[in-house]
Write a structure and sequence with these properties.
This protein is α/β, with parallel strands linked by helices and 313 residues long. It contains 12 helices and 7 strands. α9 runs parallel beside α11 and α10 packs parallel to α12.
Length: 313
């Protein structure tokens, strides 16, 4: 786990300039609030330009998380509360690791959740994993001190649509999910992954082009396979049985769920040539399912898919 202490100086080893064409430093110390008037907002590879620019006036805490990761959800909720308590002296940008491969690479994220900060356009590593609120508060104190040393002392004034700075930020209403998707979502929330998978299968039967249901089914299956198993038992079984396909499939699931996508794919693809025909068919189907969990547009999926294709033909 990363030591939850900001570095004494801004790091220059990681260059974020490739993510965005940097603008000139703004003259004012009153930073513009994000579009929704909130000090907490979502970002991704395409939207990170505004967060990077904002960091020249107020420190930006970036939480790289996974929607499928319970520790991620727990930490993001804690960060949301603690950042809002800072009255605009910090902002929080949440980045879904599956949708932000460039940010994952730029911030050298090894697992989710991982928290970094950006000050004056430069990254500051903070910590990985869930931390107690009091530890996060201490990290934020140190981050603000570090930012002050580099002239980043502005703040964001969060306002509602009517311009009232004291009003709570208004979250945009999301459209309701289709009934079967909602049924699956509720089942996942209740820990019934088999019921979630069944709901997604019904949705796919009704519309085979429903890619959200295909991805949801893959995620529900992954959660179901990991349910009730511990990290130690999975890794011990894989270490004891390097040729045990079931054990290696389990640890690939574990790696993927922890954000180690390349490790998960490499583990199965390395085994692939040594398997018999039936095992190869099973692993190929599992890889295709894991591709859906990560996202078929993810560049890591494209690399693994090419590698798999080369071994098939």
């Amino acid at each position: 786990m990363t030591d939850p202490t900001p570095h004494a100086a801004l790091r220059g080893a990681v260059d974020l300039s490739s993510l965005v064409q940097r603008s000139q430093q703004p003259d004012s110390t009153a930073a513009p609030a994000p579009a929704d008037g909130s000090v907490v907002f979502a970002t991704d590879d395409q939207g990170f330009a505004s967060a990077l620019e904002l960091s020249r006036t107020v420190p930006v805490v970036v939480a790289v998380w996974g929607s499928w990761s319970e520790p991620s959800q727990e930490l993001v909720a804690a960060l949301d509360h603690l950042v809002r308590a800072r009255a605009g002296r910090l902002v929080l940008a949440t980045a879904d690791a599956d949708r932000s491969p460039q940010l994952v690479q730029a911030f050298q994220v090894q697992s989710v959740p991982t928290v970094v900060a950006v000050v004056a356009g430069q990254p500051v590593p903070l910590f990985a994993g869930v931390q107690p609120d009091e530890v996060i508060d201490q990290v934020f104190d140190q981050l603000l001190e570090l930012a002050s040393q580099h002239g980043v002392t502005g703040s964001v004034e969060a306002t509602d649509a009517a311009g009232d700075p004291d009003a709570a930020p208004q979250e945009p209403e999301e459209p309701p999910l289709p009934p079967l998707h909602q049924e699956a979502y509720d089942a996942i929330e209740g820990g019934d992954f088999a019921a979630a998978a069944a709901a997604y299968k019904k949705a796919i039967a009704q519309d085979p082009r429903d890619q959200m249901a295909v991805a949801g089914l893959a995620q529900a299956n992954l959660l179901g396979r990991l349910n009730g198993k511990t990290l130690e038992s999975i890794r011990n079984a894989a270490a004891a049985g390097p040729d045990d396909l079931g054990a290696q499939l389990d640890v690939a699931d574990l790696d993927l769920s922890g954000g180690h996508v390349d490790d998960a794919f490499d583990r199965l693809l390395t085994m692939f040539p040594k398997l018999d025909a039936d095992q190869k068919k099973f692993v190929r189907e599992r890889l295709v399912e894991l591709f859906e969990v990560v996202g078929t547009e993810d560049p890591r999926v494209a690399v693994a898919r090419r590698r798999l294709t080369n071994m098939l033909f």
